[in-house]
Design a protein that fits this description.
This protein has about 220 residues and is an all-alpha fold. It has helices at about 15-30, 40-45, 50-55, 60-85, 90-100, 110-120, 125-155, 160-180, 185-200. The protein is built from 9 helices and no strands. It comes from Dongia rigui.
Length: about 220
């Protein structure tokens, strides 16, 4: 006689943790930091509050893990877009720009979650460390593409400074568009960023570039 399959199965710990992390992200997007509690997350995930405490030390631990997970999800979306582009520095950089203003990246829920993390970065050492890691990886990728373009075009620029400038531009456009989409379209945001790349290629980005010092004036004698 065949054994009956058990009616219920125990979720794997990683699967349950991810379920709680995703529920936390949804709660942060809808209710903000103050409205995201163990009970709210448990209700969102459809589990008991005790199960939340079983998998995480507390809300601080859960929010930190949610930041790590969100950063990885954003990175996953960017990687998918980059994989479809030619493996050349400029093509990869332009694909990065386009992906930064794609529909998934402009999801209002992502804005709500990201603003929570940004607000905690200045006061919470753990969140500050995670933020540093997420953005360091982000800038290193841009720096690699910019270095490749600079080498091809023989540009005398500092790729690290250029990556900082582009990061600030992309973040600013993304934030402003998410806060008020009526200000400009995603297409216009992409165009602004692509114009920046055009100026970089043309050698018009000079921040951090090594400039030749003018030769000292030689006084005439006699």
């Amino acid at each position: 006689m065949a054994e009956k399959e058990p009616k219920f199965t125990r979720d794997l710990p990683e699967s349950r943790r991810r379920q709680l992390i995703e529920a936390t992200a949804r709660s942060l997007a809808r209710h903000g930091l103050d409205g995201t509690t163990v009970r709210v997350v448990a209700a969102e995930a459809g589990v008991s509050p005790g199960l939340v405490r079983h998998h995480f030390a507390g809300m601080h631990d859960l929010i930190a893990e949610t930041y790590r997970w969100t950063g990885k999800e954003v990175e996953k979306g960017l990687r998918a877009a980059l994989a479809a582009a030619p493996d050349q520095p400029e093509a990869q950089l332009r694909a990065f720009v386009d992906a930064s203003f794609s529909t998934p990246m402009l999801n209002p829920d992502l804005l709500g979650v990201w603003l929570t993390f940004w607000s905690l970065t200045r006061t919470d050492p753990v969140i500050h460390e995670i933020h540093g890691k997420v953005y360091a990886d982000y800038r290193k990728r841009l720096q690699r593409y910019i270095s490749g373009i600079a080498e091809e075009k023989k540009l005398g620029l500092d790729p690290r400074i250029a990556a900082l400038a582009l990061t600030a531009l992309l973040d600013g456009l993304w934030l402003e568009h998410c806060l008020d989409p009526s200000t400009f379209t995603a297409s216009e945001a992409r165009q602004i960023a692509h114009d920046w790349v055009d100026n970089l290629k043309a050698g018009r980005f000079m921040a951090g570039a090594k400039r030749e010092e003018p030769a000292p004036a030689v006084a005439k004698v006699g």
